[in-house]
């Protein structure tokens, strides 16, 4: 009796995608821990760093698919860090999500054009919106 190829193909297609690797960068330790816990509940791998200075190397070491980053950090801002990530790694990956305590009209456009952020969220952000942005990534494309 021949094996049912359709069944084995269907099972292969139903295999769960690999978890996304999400780096959280914020000088506020509680924000990092909260976002990491939220993302882990959804099955993502996470890593957190507390300064922009360490973010670029962490993106490389962790091979991050997405970075959620505060733009107002001491020592090295999220603006500068995002530009450095884009210069070092490119625009295709990782997805960059900016977090800020304030929203000014047009900030999302400026952050995209100048620093290479893909999305802009204000703190505190809606967890559902954040998860929707991160899960828009297709594991086959990363």
Question: Secondary-structure map with pairings?
Answer:
Layout lengths: L4 H9 L7 E5 L3 H13 L3 E5 L2 H11 L3 E5 L7 H12 L5 E6 L6 H9 L3 E4 L4 H9 L7
Parallel strand pairs: 1-2, 1-3, 3-4, 4-5
Helix pairs in contact: 3-4
Describe this structure in words.
- This protein has 142 residues and is of the alpha/beta class.
- It has a single domain, classed as Rossmann fold (3-Layer(aba) Sandwich), CATH 3.40.50.
- 44% of the residues lie in helices and 18% in strands.
- It has helices spanning 5-13, 29-41, 52-62, 78-89, 107-115, 127-135; strands at residues 21-25, 45-49, 66-70, 95-100, 119-122.
- Strands 2-1-3-4-5 form a five-stranded parallel β-sheet, sandwiched between helices.
- Strand 3 (66-70), helix 4 (78-89) and strand 4 form a beta-alpha-beta unit.
- Helix 3 (52-62) runs parallel beside helix 4.
- It is globular.
- Report the principal-axis shape: globular
- The helix tally amounts to 6
The CATH homologous superfamily: Response regulator
**Structural class given helices, strands, pairing?**
alpha/beta
Record keyword descriptors for this entry:
142 residues, alpha/beta, Rossmann fold, 5-stranded parallel β-sheet, globular, disordered N terminus
Summarize the structure.
It is built from six helices and five strands; from the N terminus they run αβαβαβαβαβα.
């Amino acid at each position: 009796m021949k094996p049912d190829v359709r069944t084995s193909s269907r099972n292969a297609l139903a295999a769960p995608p690999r978890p996304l690797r999400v780096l959280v960068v914020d000088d506020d330790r509680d924000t990092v821990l909260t976002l990491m816990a939220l993302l882990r509940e959804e099955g993502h791998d996470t890593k957190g760093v507390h300064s922009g200075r360490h973010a670029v190397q962490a993106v490389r070491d962790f091979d991050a698919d997405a970075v959620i980053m505060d733009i107002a950090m001491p020592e090295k801002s999220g603006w500068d860090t995002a530009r450095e990530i884009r210069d070092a790694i490119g625009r295709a990956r990782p997805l960059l999500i900016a977090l800020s305590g304030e929203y000014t009209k047009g900030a999302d456009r400026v952050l995209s054009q100048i620093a290479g952020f893909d999305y802009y969220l204000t703190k505190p952000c809606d967890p559902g919106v954040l998860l929707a942005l991160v899960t828009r990534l297709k594991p086959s494309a990363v």
